[in-house]
TrEMBL record:
Pfam families, sorted: Usp
InterPro entries: Rossmann-like_a/b/a_fold, Universal_stress_UspA, UspA
Family listed: Belongs to the universal stress protein A family.
Organism: Saccharolobus caldissimus
Residue ranges of every copy of the UspA domain listed in the record: 3-135
Superkingdom: Archaea
Protein name (Swiss-Prot/TrEMBL): UspA domain-containing protein
Length: 143
């Protein structure tokens, strides 16, 4: 059985990663932890009351998501982590807590977007010695 961590940010890409995990891996994963990373740069612009409200709102949403997932994967929890770099923070947490697998959704950035903002999944691939499952998301255009 697998102990997995899933990078979660409430985006449609993270939702697709959860859906894929439930549909394809729920019989193999005995423990799933969602990790939400709060960038330290975000906290600099907030006062202590705003930080408290922001964290409480995130925790409430994460608890709801864990409750949904627990119908399919019995042991599911969440963690809120703080760091300057999302990829580094996810990797360090996964390494310290001996996870077998990192799961992450991929936005499918084009070359310009990738050059401007980088890619969490791309950086994780470069730095991690823990296996990574990247759930690809494709843009669909109506004609």
């Amino acid at each position: 059985m697998i102990k997995a961590i899933l990078g979660y940010d409430f985006s449609e890409y993270a939702e697709k990663a959860i859906k894929f995990t439930i549909n394809n891996l729920s019989n193999r994963i005995h423990y799933l932890e969602l990790i939400y990373v709060i960038g330290l740069n975000k906290l600099v612009i907030l006062n202590s009351e705003e930080i408290y409200r922001f964290k409480a709102e995130i925790e409430k949403k994460l608890q709801e998501k864990v409750s949904e997932i627990s119908k399919y994967i019995t042991e599911c929890k969440y963690t809120i982590a703080y760091g300057e770099d999302i990829s580094d923070t996810i990797y360090k947490y996964a390494k310290e807590n001996k996870f077998d697998l990192i799961i992450i959704g991929r936005r499918g950035l084009n070359k310009i977007e990738y050059a401007l903002v980088g890619s969490v999944s791309g950086k994780l691939l470069k730095i991690s010695d823990i296996p990574i499952l990247i759930i690809e998301s494709y843009k669909i255009y109506d004609s």
